[in-house]
Structure prediction request, 353 residues.
Amino acid sequence: MRVAVIGGGMSGLSAAHEASKFSDEITLFHQKPFSSERSGCWGQAIKDFSRVPLDKDADGYLRDLQKAEFVDKQGSAEVSFTDGAAVERSSLESEWASQLKEVSMEQERVDKSRLKQISEKSDLVVDCSGPFPVSKKIRNFRYRLIAPMLNCKVSGDFSDIYPNVKVIRYKNYFLEMMPETEEECNIAIGCSKENNPAEMYTDMKEMLSDRDIEVPAFGEMKQGNYVSNTLPTILRHSSFGLNGAEVRLTGDALGIASDMSGFGNSRAAWTGIQAVRTYFNDTSYRRKILSDQLLSRSVHTIFRPVHRRIGIVRTMKYIGGQKVEADKLGDPRNLKDIIKASKQVIKSISKHK
Prediction:
């Protein structure tokens, strides 16, 4: 079986890694060299590393990420991660690519016409090319939400945060501070679609004004987009046929967002694996995506009204603080996780009353 993977990020590398178990004819098309800076706007923390098929001794794995502090006008609260990781994504992805000896690497930007050519010579094409993927030019779907994000790396004293992560409430989203070391920190900010990047940049500088750090000029900031889609759109466009090949979309390409939970990298890796595994096992990729999305969206549906009503900090404190395993609440795997999260939220509501 001939497998083509479009995109060399977390999802693409996961797809190629999984495909190597089933095929010896795999080509991964990546636009940027693995030797360059590759991280996206939220690329330095993986909140659930168990979904990534790599060992923790891989180059780029910095340390276990155990806690996150949430901050808003009401104070602060902490939650824990069962298997979180702080990473230097460029090094991690470069190391990962070097391990895929069976995979042919092609540095090339794949456009619509090239995708059609690739599909003619493939049995399975996995589109992991991120927001606004090349497949979108064929399927022509719309995202439910497109929101801007900014990212930068700064130097300073971050010993008060390290080795954890700090998340500060910002309008309808967050500013996240993820130290790589006590002296270097990756900072990302995201908001709703109504905010433009220039406004977010000004707000970021204001929010960081109490720290002795120099924020890069606006033109030096990395810019990206947070995207999400409705469940019907995700299921409709998760796979389609093209020139005899099966094309499957993953992660941000499909709009499978991490939503409020911050598990985008974990989801990207998981969908890349499932797109390949279900194909070779002759099981339904759509059904796998449906099951995952129903679990995730059910918790978010329960959690979001409480979060918006009383604030993120008060909510976290009411449902258990550090005892809350964020991965169970934000990225549930099974019904047991759903029941546990529901009980925590119901307890939160009763306490607030």
Remarks:
- The chain is about 35% helix and 25% strand.
- The first strand starts at residue 2 and ends at 6.
- Residues 70 and 113 are 46 Å apart (CA to CA).
